[in-house]
């Protein structure tokens, strides 16, 4: 089966090359090409792909801004003409880094390496390595707490104490009045675990505790000194859930 | 008698080794890319000029960055390096300090554009079998 991808690239010649390489390889199916981050995110809200070919410097927002906004974790190949982003790429756990302009040979190496990684990861999906344990709600009952793996230990957090959750691509930040905790998981995963009357997804990158909201001004939720944006696509649900008259 | 076709040889100012790897002998695609380059470069370069005129150095840097990528696809690897140095200077120098580098970059870009115009014409003739 082909790997599905999108191309996020503001230079048409570069995008055309990538599309041509994908077609030539017969390994990758291009589902779309987007000239900027906003259009790519709009597409990714509707449809999931296996892989993003992502430029870094684009008008409006950078490729890293897109990664910050993702609610799931596709494979990422950065395509940029700057080598200075290597450290950031490492921080964001990107799968490969292609310096533009690159040849078909280099492209193919990246794809084959990626597909090998995907194949070796598939069988182990049910047993996550210890350092990648996602947040785990207490099993078997509708408890008012959960455990998250943070800094090499399982931390018990009362759901009531959570102010909001913020997506950090492969990680989620739990913010409480006393402390913030970062755990390896996705916001989508958390959304499923925290489903109920207490929590509400207000933006592709944020889930808030409804009880902790102080006030709402325009498209911003104020919550114990924190400002959380309300995403366009979530406004209707926010209005409905918060009994806004 | 059948005419024997020799491979297309790029202008010596271009990185022929890299272009050979990039296009893998596909001169039709090379023609398309060179045509796109000639169409896109003036659009991107306008942004460079506007940013320099308004002394908006962060935008100047990102605009030169875009042109740098474009130069790479037609084999100007040395000009890419010049663009990279200019781009780096945009974050530390003033517009006045960049003036000489900017003039040199314009001159180099003009020469590059002229070479690609000629290469594009040669590629067209080559692909038409002339």
Characterization of the model:
The complex is a heterodimer of chains A (245) and B (130). Chain A has 245 residues and is of the alpha/beta class. Chain A has 2 domains: 3-124, Rossmann fold, CATH 3.40.50; 130-241, OB fold (Dihydrolipoamide Acetyltransferase, E2P). In chain A, 28% of the residues lie in helices and 31% in strands. Chain A is built from 7 helices and 16 strands. Chain A has a 5-stranded parallel beta sheet. A 5-stranded antiparallel beta sheet of chain A has the order 11-10-9-13-12. In chain A, a hairpin with a 2-residue loop joins strand 9 and strand 10 (171-175). In chain A, helix 2 (37-46) packs parallel to helix 3 (63-69). Residues 123-141 of chain A have low confidence and may be disordered. Chain B has one domain (25-125): Four Helix Bundle (Hemerythrin (Met), subunit A). Chain B has helices at 16-23, 27-53, 57-73, 77-90, 95-127. The longest helix of chain B has 33 residues, at 95-127. Chain B is elongated, with a radius of gyration of 17 Å. The interface between A and B is medium-sized, with 16 and 19 residues.
List its traits.
heterodimer, A: 245 residues, alpha/beta, Rossmann fold, OB fold (Dihydrolipoamide Acetyltransferase, E2P), five-stranded antiparallel β-sheet, 7 helices, elongated, B: 130 residues, mainly alpha, Four Helix Bundle (Hemerythrin (Met), subunit A)
Helicity level of chain B: over 70%
Query: What count of domains describes the coordinates of chain B?
Result: 1
Mean pLDDT of chain B, as a whole number? 93
* Gyration radius of chain B, rounded: 17 Å
Which word captures the global form of chain A?
elongated
Quote the CATH topology of the largest domain in chain A.
Rossmann fold
Low-confidence sequence ranges of chain A: 123-141
Short characterization:
The complex is a heterodimer of chains A (245) and B (130). Chain A is of the alpha/beta class.
């Amino acid at each position: 089966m082909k790997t599905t991808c999108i191309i996020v690239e503001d230079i048409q010649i570069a995008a055309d090359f990538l599309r041509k390489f994908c077609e030539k390889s017969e390994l990758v199916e291009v589902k779309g090409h987007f000239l900027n981050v906003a259009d790519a995110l709009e597409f990714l809200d509707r449809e999931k792909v296996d892989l993003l070919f992502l430029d870094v410097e684009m008008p409006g927002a950078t490729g890293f801004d897109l990664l910050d906004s993702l609610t799931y974790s596709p494979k990422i190949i950065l395509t940029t003409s700057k080598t200075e982003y290597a450290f950031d790429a490492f921080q964001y756990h990107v799968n490969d880094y292609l310096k533009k302009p690159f040849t078909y040979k280099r492209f193919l190496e990246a794809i084959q390496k990626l597909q090998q990684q995907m194949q070796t990861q598939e069988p182990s999906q049910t047993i996550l390595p210890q350092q990648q344990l996602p947040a785990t709600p207490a099993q078997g009952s509708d408890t008012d707490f959960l455990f998250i793996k943070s800094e090499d230990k399982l931390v018990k957090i009362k759901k009531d104490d959570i102010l909001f959750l913020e997506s950090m691509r492969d990680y989620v930040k739990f913010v409480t009045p006393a402390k913030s905790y970062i755990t390896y998981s996705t916001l989508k995963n958390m959304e499923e675990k925290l489903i109920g009357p207490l929590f509400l997804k207000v933006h592709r990158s944020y889930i808030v505790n409804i009880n902790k909201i102080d006030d709402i001004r325009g498209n911003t939720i104020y919550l114990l000194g924190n400002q959380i944006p309300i995403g366009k696509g979530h406004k209707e649900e926010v209005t409905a859930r918060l009994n806004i008259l | 008698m059948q005419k024997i076709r020799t491979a297309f040889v790029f202008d010596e100012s271009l990185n022929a080794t890299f272009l050979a790897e990039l296009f893998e002998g596909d001169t039709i695609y090379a023609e398309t890319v060179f045509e796109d380059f000639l169409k896109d470069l003036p659009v991107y370069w306008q942004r460079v000029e506007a940013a320099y005129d308004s002394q908006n150095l962060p935008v100047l840097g990102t605009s030169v960055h875009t042109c740098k990528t474009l130069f790479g696809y037609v084999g100007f690897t040395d000009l890419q390096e010049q663009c990279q140095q200019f781009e780096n200077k945009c974050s530390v120098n003033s517009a006045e300090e960049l003036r000489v580098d900017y003039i040199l970059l314009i001159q180099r870009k003009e020469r590059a554009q002229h070479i690609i115009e000629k290469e594009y014409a040669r590629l067209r003739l080559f692909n038409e079998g002339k």
